[in-house]
């Protein structure tokens, strides 16, 4: 039994940053990299299945990205993933989520997992489409925004609860293998133990080339993507106004604004 | 050498490799050998000459590291000073925001910002708490940027002289009105300036002046004639207010004014009875917290329909045992919890509350510092994380219970043990390998741990733990009274 977890190293920003010279992204020096929060929950869900199963379950994490992504993959290994795979080629720079989904699909075909987990979205790009595009390429069933999962290794069906608007949940029975995009809060992700971190440091990260996936530079990158970033910029400030004055005065102004909006 | 290669503080390697350095030179050499920018930052203030240059090369190994250290709230000021010399505008912006940036660095940055007409940096310097009065005075005298001046007017680092200059420069100007509002709330504003601002300002600013700790007595007396509710609310809390004015305020139609009266420690006892039946629950809540309550007041308050009134009463240490016992049976969970948190709550009552159906109440019992061991042993069998956290925190909890709680899956419970001053080293030892990095940082600061326990965390996977170990070592080897700062240099006064 094998569960494949697609993960991404995401970038966070401080309040001050600089845009790259080409205007298409933030200068990398200002980015703080970490494992995508949603993927932390996906991995934990896979680990829960592994640890509660009577049969052997292998958890494989996969990411598409350059060398720096190894740090996030080691984090996954430290938390208990059995193997880590990283796919990269410089020609993949600028790939949109759909192309990344294509690359992941080729890995999945080779690995032949019984289930595929991905985060609902990445915190830096928020397309929420990688997992779904993988399901589409594979022609597998999928469920998005999974907030609860009942599944035992070997089962040909899983029951998931999907989070909907307005606090609603939708219970869905889904055929397996399937692609599930996991929502925050489905579990409580663990911290990696020091022992796990130490062991992860010595585990190999399998580096896979596009060629090994029967892909070429022509299949990936901005050129092959159906969407491309034209520019990234900070918009003009909106209608926000700093309320000045003494504390009592600020309170009075806030009350006045609230009353105006309420029509009082 | 990793913490994993150690068996809980027992040496397995040669002492020369494992022992903590006994001199600043040895510590600096070890930090250089580590090749870690955060370790280098931790010991930077101790180094001189070539060693210092080597550390700075590690700190400045990449722009990314420089930016991170410039932003980090734990970066020592000597490192921030070194970062100010690299001439990177983005780094300078972060230095201006960092609370550890020294006044000297800020002064240099101001000169640079001023020459380049960099208003963004000037604004940050104007609001920085470490900015020198001289620099702030320069901003007052020579800058016209409103945002910088408004930021400065809120800065407590601007002493009385700077604030007076600011108010004088813009007296009568439109900007002066906004500046006066800020100055009236600035703790550094002197009494005479406050008096001047009071004489020329609108009601809100005058109210701020009256609420200021430096407000002169004469203004308090003058303002007492006001019948503005805003003014009376602030005045009512002032201990300098004449008793007859307090009596008058107690009759005010404004609940905020009456609340102020009750919050005033100088309020005559006779007024409590008068305000006990006040229509505003806010007033009655204030009364319930007073330390001069009499039996007849308590009897009325314990039957108050407002849960917050009863909750405040239940926390009040002057409340007698019988009343606490009655409140311990209150239908409101927060009232029962308040009884359990009362510093004077007797053990018998704690025992009753330890069996409460609500975990929120049992948790309060678990945190009570005079809860007896037997009660804590019983609560250690609870399943609720808040209750177990309380047991873990409680210095009366027996060591054998703490030893079990160290293995809890809940980080809050394990943290409770780390923060428990009675937890022994033997109990705490497993937590040196706690998965949560913040817990390992707390272990470095824990006085129960041996030096070697802490030192062995120096190669922790988390950079913040490594930094905290070396910072601890710096303080251990060269206590602050052996160091002093000259310019951007921290010079060792003597070797320890």
How would you characterize the overall build of this protein?
The complex is a heterodimer of chains A (264) and B (496). Chain A has 264 residues and is an alpha/beta fold. Chain A has helices at 37-52, 70-78, 97-111, 130-138, 194-202, 247-262, and strands at residues 2-6, 9-13, 31-35, 58-64, 83-87, 115-119, 142-150, 157-163, 169-175, 179-182, 206-208. The termini of chain A are far apart. In chain A, helix 2 crosses helix 5 and helix 3 crosses helix 4. In chain A, strand 4 (58-64), helix 2 (70-78) and strand 5 (83-87) form a beta-alpha-beta unit. Chain A contains 6 helices and 11 strands. A 9-stranded mixed beta sheet of chain A has the order 9-8-7-10-6-1-4-5-11, sandwiched between helices. Chain A has a two-stranded antiparallel sheet with strand order 2-3. Chain B is mainly alpha-helical and 496 residues long. Chain B has helices at 15-18, 24-34, 37-43, 49-59, 63-71, 77-83, 89-97, 103-115, 119-127, 133-142, 146-154, 160-169, 174-183, 191-200, 203-211, 217-223, 229-235, 243-249, 255-263, 270-275, 281-288, 295-301, 307-315, 321-327, 333-341, 347-353, 359-367, 373-379, 385-393, 399-405, 411-419, 425-428, 437-445, 451-455, 463-477, and strands at residues 483-486, 489-492. In chain B, helix 7 (89-97) runs parallel beside helix 9 (119-127) and helix 25 (333-341) runs parallel beside helix 27 (359-367). Chain B is flat and about 75 Å long. Mean pLDDT of chain B is 92; it is low at 1-16 and 481-496. Classes of the chains: A alpha/beta (264), B mainly alpha (496).
What are the main properties of this structure?
heterodimer; A: 264 residues; alpha/beta; nine-stranded mixed beta sheet; 6 helices; 11 strands; 28% helix; B: 496 residues; mainly alpha; two-stranded antiparallel ribbon; 35 helices; 59% helix; disordered N terminus
């Amino acid at each position: 039994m094998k569960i494949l977890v697609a993960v991404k190293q995401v970038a966070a920003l401080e309040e001050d940053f600089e845009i790259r010279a080409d205007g298409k992204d933030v200068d990398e020096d200002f980015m703080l990299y970490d494992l995508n929060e949603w993927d932390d929950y996906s991995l934990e869900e896979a680990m829960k299945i592994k640890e509660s199963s009577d049969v052997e379950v292998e958890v494989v994490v996969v990411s598409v990205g350059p060398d720096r992504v190894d740090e996030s993959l080691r984090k996954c290994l430290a938390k208990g993933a059995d193997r880590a795979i990283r796919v990269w080629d410089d020609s993949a720079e600028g790939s949109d989520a759909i192309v990344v989904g294509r690359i992941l699909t080729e890995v999945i075909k080779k690995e032949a997992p019984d289930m595929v987990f991905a985060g609902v979205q990445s915190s830096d790009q928020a397309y929420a489409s990688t997992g779904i595009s993988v399901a589409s390429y594979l022609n597998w069933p999928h469920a998005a925004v999974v907030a609860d999962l009942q599944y035992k290794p070997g089962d040909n069906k899983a029951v998931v609860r999907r989070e909907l608007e307005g606090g609603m949940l939708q219970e869905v029975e889904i055929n397996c293998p399937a692609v599930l995009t996991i929502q925050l809060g489905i579990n409580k992700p663990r911290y990696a133990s020091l022992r796990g971190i130490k062991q992860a440091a010595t585990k190999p990260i399998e580096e896979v080339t596009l060629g090994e996936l029967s892909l070429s530079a022509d299949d990936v990158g901005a050129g092959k993507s159906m969407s491309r970033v034209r520019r990234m910029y900070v918009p003009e400030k909106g209608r926000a106004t700093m309320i000045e004055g003494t504390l009592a005065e600020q309170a009075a102004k806030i009350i006045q604004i609230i009353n105006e909006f309420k029509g009082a | 050498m990793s913490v994993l290669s150690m068996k809980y503080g027992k040496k397995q390697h040669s002492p020369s490799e494992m022992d903590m350095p006994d001199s600043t030179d040895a510590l600096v050499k070890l930090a250089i050998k580590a090749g870690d920018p955060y370790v280098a930052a931790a010991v930077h203030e101790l180094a001189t000459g070539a060693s210092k240059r080597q550390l700075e090369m590690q700190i400045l190994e990449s722009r990314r590291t420089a930016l991170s250290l410039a932003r980090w709230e734990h970066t020592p000021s000597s490192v921030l000073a070194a970062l100010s010399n690299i001439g990177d505008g983005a780094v300078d912006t972060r230095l201006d925001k960092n609370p550890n940036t020294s006044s000297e660095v800020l002064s240099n940055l101001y000169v640079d910002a001023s020459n380049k007409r960099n208003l963004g940096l000037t604004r940050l310097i104007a609001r920085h708490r470490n900015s020198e009065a001289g620099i702030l005075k320069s901003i007052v005298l020579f800058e016209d940027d409103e945002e910088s001046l408004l930021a400065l007017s809120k800065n407590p680092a601007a002493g009385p002289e700077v604030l007076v200059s600011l108010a004088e420069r813009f007296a009568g100007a439109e900007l002066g009105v906004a500046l006066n509002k800020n100055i009236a709330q600035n703790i550094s504003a002197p009494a005479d300036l406050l008096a001047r601002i009071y004489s020329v300002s609108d009601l809100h600013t005058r109210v701020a002046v009256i609420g200021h700790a430096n407000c002169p007595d004469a203004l308090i007396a003058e303002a007492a004639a006001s019948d503005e509710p805003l003014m009376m609310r602030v005045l009512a809390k002032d201990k300098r207010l004449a008793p007859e004015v307090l009596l008058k305020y107690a009759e005010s139609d404004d609940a905020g004014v009456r609340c102020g009266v009750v919050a005033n420690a100088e309020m005559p006892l006779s007024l409590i009875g008068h305000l006990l039946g006040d229509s505003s629950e806010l007033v009655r809540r204030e009364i319930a917290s007073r330390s001069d309550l009499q039996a007849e007041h308590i009897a009325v308050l314990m039957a108050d329909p407002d849960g917050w009134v009863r909750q405040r009463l239940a926390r009040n240490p002057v409340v007698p045992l019988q009343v606490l016992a009655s409140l311990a049976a209150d239908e409101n969970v927060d009232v029962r919890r308040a009884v359990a948190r009362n510093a004077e709550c007797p053990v018998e009552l704690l025992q009753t509350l330890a069996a409460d159906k609500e975990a929120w109440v049992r948790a309060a019992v678990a945190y009570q510092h005079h809860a007896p061991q037997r009660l804590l042993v019983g609560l250690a069998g609870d399943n609720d994380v808040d209750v177990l956290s309380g047991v873990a925190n409680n210095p009366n909890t027996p060591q054998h219970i703490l030893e079990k709680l160290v293995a809890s899956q809940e980080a809050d419970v394990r943290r409770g043990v780390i923060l428990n001053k009675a937890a022994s080293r033997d109990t705490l030892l497993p937590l040196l390998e706690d998965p949560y990095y913040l817990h390992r940082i707390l272990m470095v600061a824990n006085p129960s741990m041996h030096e070697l326990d802490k030192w062995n965390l120096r190669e922790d996977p988390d950079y913040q733990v490594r930094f905290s170990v070396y910072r601890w070592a710096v303080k251990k080897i060269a206590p602050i009274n052996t160091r002093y700062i000259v310019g951007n240099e921290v010079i060792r006064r003597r070797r320890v």
